Amino acid sequence: MVSFKALLLRDLRLAFRQGGDGALAVIFFVLAALLFPFGLGPEPEALARDAVGIVWVMALLASLLALDRLFQGDWEDGSLDLIALSPLPLELAVLAKALGHWLVSGLPLLIAAPIVAAMLQFDPAGLPRLVLALALGTPTLSLLGAVGAALTLGARRAAVLVSLLVLPLEIPILIFGVAAADPAATGDGSTQIMLLGALMALALPLCPWAAAAALRQALD
Amino acid sequence: MHRFANPARFMRISQILLPWLSLVTILLLTAGLVLALIVAPPDYQQGESVRIMFVHVPAAWMAMCAYSTLAAASAAALIWRHPLAEIAAEETAPLGAVFTGLCLVSGSLWGEPMWGTWWAWDARMTSVLVLFFLYLGYMALLNAFDDPTRGRRAAAILALVGFVNVPIIKFSVDWWNTLHQPASVLRLGGPAIDPSILAPLLVMALAFTLLFVTLLVVRMRAALMERKIRALDAAAGGALG
Amino acid sequence: MGFSTWIRMGGYALFVWPAYGIAAAALGLLAAGTIRRYRMAQRRLAQLTVPRRGEDA
């Protein structure tokens, strides 16, 4: 019986059993971010200024890592057909998948980000705002990613194609996210936080709807 | 033959219209260039660099019009599976991409003398850049599948998803007070530009629009002929097999 | 207004002329490519629809 909870738990169980796309995303995130002091030079002021931007770019890239496989496994072994035929609306199934993706790659990011930011000499006073911005932005990244994954299901070079489709749409999140936590910005970033929240509110209904439409095309 | 009925009507009508479309396009482009480069007076503040506006703004308008055409055709293709709509969508994308690229490049060349920077991450420029990538993504998705029908359907959905970007481009200069100036032509209360500048602008915009329409019609005719060619090739192959 | 004055575009020549030049090049190539594709399709279609001799009806 396919229910939202069942689908979600199954995805999480699979993710943990496979040890992990999620763990991989976080490790990539931390390692890549740590390359920047080597590349940019270790001066604290330069790093601190760039720390927010680095964290956010890394978050975007890390969220892309497991995307092309979001639906592919189920599509190849026929589970996706079963899910589509079940009473559970396909939109909710997509939501469950996106939530699973976020729990496994977005939520660990929220925990890793303050550590990485601190290592990049980011002022600790700004950490709560950074985490809040990430908490509001990363779910939208997963939702947009689900749309990209659904559109490219079965395409040649799906991994690269997903990035081409999804990254431009994620640029506004990047801009608002950095502005929300930027220590050099005037204002407390609350407008940007609200915009991030608004984007998530928009993405929650629209992305599953679009992704479900794309999945139906793939299953035709 | 009735599966070609509507496309056949399109071919007939477009055959009659095409010479006129081409003629009007060439006339408008010539008139527009004369107005833009010779007749229009230099600006009080920007001097002769204001002439770049006569390329940049029409290109921007076309970039958005093309995407709206793309989205509308994609919607028609998804809802009614109309073959003409599918072809229109496919053939619009490269045109839109070129106009968007032109908008970005000309904007860069205008920005440097006017604002002192080749690029800025202001709301409008960022969303036009996103528009450019949407076109590229559409074309990539279209060709990414072994089954062309799947490619067309997926690309059509992408076109619709990306349509949210168009109102963002239009209204971003009103919502955010950043580098780009607020709307000065298409706004309530009428244009806020001097007629001597407005005239070349509108003529160039009309010229670009006619160019877009003409090229789209030619491309759609070519696409329909190519479909026929593929069908005939396949039939001939079968007969000889 | 003399020709050389016009070409100089009040000192902005380096910006104005590339803008128009790139526009002309991009749109010109687009048009040329489109026309070429159209003519090739026309020719091929004409070849295929001319009845061939020496073939069974």
Q: Which helices and strands occur, and which strands form pairs?
A:
The complex is a heterotrimer of chains A (220), B (241) and C (57).
Chain A: H1 4-17, H2 21-40, H3 44-64, H4 72-77, H5 79-85, H6 90-119, H7 127-151, H8 158-181, H9 190-219
Helix pairs in contact in A: 1-6, 2-3, 2-6, 3-6, 3-7, 3-8, 6-7, 6-9, 7-8, 7-9, 8-9
Chain B: H1 5-39, H2 53-80, H3 83-115, H4 123-142, H5 148-161, H6 165-175, H7 195-240
Helix pairs in contact in B: 1-7, 2-3, 2-5, 2-7, 3-4, 3-7, 4-5, 4-6
Chain C: H1 3-8, H2 13-49
Question: Can you offer a commentary on this structure?
Answer:
The complex is a heterotrimer of chains A (220), B (241) and C (57). Chain A has one domain. Chain A is 80% helix and 0% strand. Chain A has nine helices and no strands. Chain A starts with a helix and ends with a helix. The model of chain A has no long low-confidence stretch (mean pLDDT 85). Chain B is mainly alpha-helical and 241 residues long. Chain B has one domain (17-40, 49-183, 193-235). Chain B has helices spanning 5-39, 53-80, 83-115, 123-142, 148-161, 165-175, 195-240. Chain B is globular. The model of chain B is unreliable at 1-5 (pLDDT under 50). By secondary structure, chain C is mainly α. Chain C contains two helices and no strands. The termini of chain C are far apart. The model of chain C has no long low-confidence stretch (mean pLDDT 85). The interface between A and B is medium-sized, with 24 and 23 residues.
